[in-house]
Amino acid sequence: MHKALLKASASVQKVLTSCGIITATSLICCDSEKVPYQSALEKEEIQSMQSAIIGHFSSFPTSGCDLLNDVVSTFFILSTGCDHWDELLDGGLYSGEVTEIAGSAGSGKTQVCMSIATSVAMNIEKNVVYIDTQAAFSSDRIKEMLYSRDSSLTGQDTTNILSRIKCIQAFDIFDVINCLNDIKDSLNMEDQGFYSNLRLVIVDSVAFVIAPILGGQQTQGHSFMVHLSRDLKSLALEHGLSVMVTNNVVTDALTTRKVKPALGQTWSHIPNTRIFLQKSACKTNERIATVVKSSRQPTDISTTFFIQTGGLQDYT
């Protein structure tokens, strides 16, 4: 029996126990008309205790209007800084969603991530957490993008923009999970500081920390992958953030597609949107981005773009 909740004396609890009522569930389910005949308790006492338990443990309903207001108040779309990419993503990166960029080594995944992070910090003036699992993040490259986009930037301007991008290195799945938990804890704090203006979380790359623990003798690898995927989804949904991850590709012998995103069928359900990135056969710095999964866009639509000194640039 929940003593603190019922605030019942020892004698009352003894009477209830004698009637076979020893749990909160049995008290809620008992007939308040019959119990008084089996004990010295009044009907009103039984009903009062039942109401107290139900009121303490029951969830409160939320109206559809309140749910809609919550969504609208936290919803946003982050521009990638590249018109063709924004068009491909139906406006940009959506809050509450996980977007995956998949491609082979050298296809430009990290360049895309750094370019989008730069655009969010520079153009929208929002904060970005960049979880780097491969030691590929480069602040010098970010500076190069900034000065290429606006040569009039002062040293202080550059410092202010860079302060909006927090890079955290995490070289195994446990480090990444700890990083995500730290972000959640910071978002739940009253004084959020940097995280009060956080809009985008990037993990580059998830494949680098998940692939080594899958298969072979790593029997718990799949569980850790599910744990990480759940943390990414909850971070996006519960805190209204946009989450972007990068993934590798593997050969798919069962379909006509030569390669497909790595990490298997289970992981394929995690991203809301998947973009397949590949090099163009025409020019060295030309890339092709193709939608392979989306709830808003038709699949297999593509856009061509360049990776230049200033980051992503539309194909003209």
TrEMBL record:
Residues 74-249 form the RecA family profile domain. GO terms for molecular function: ATP binding; ATP-dependent DNA damage sensor activity; four-way junction DNA binding; single-stranded DNA binding. Signal peptide: none annotated. GO terms for cellular component: microtubule organizing center; Rad51B-Rad51C-Rad51D-XRCC2 complex; replication fork. PROSITE patterns: RECA_2. Keywords: ATP-binding, DNA damage, DNA recombination, DNA repair, DNA-binding, Nucleotide-binding, Nucleus. It is found in: Nucleus. Pfam families: Rad51 (PF08423). SUPFAM superfamilies: P-loop containing nucleoside triphosphate hydrolases. GO terms for biological process: DNA strand invasion; double-strand break repair via homologous recombination; reciprocal meiotic recombination; telomere maintenance. Its main location: nucleus. Belongs to the RecA family. RAD51 subfamily. This is DNA repair protein RAD51 homolog 4-like isoform X1. The gene is LOC116290658.
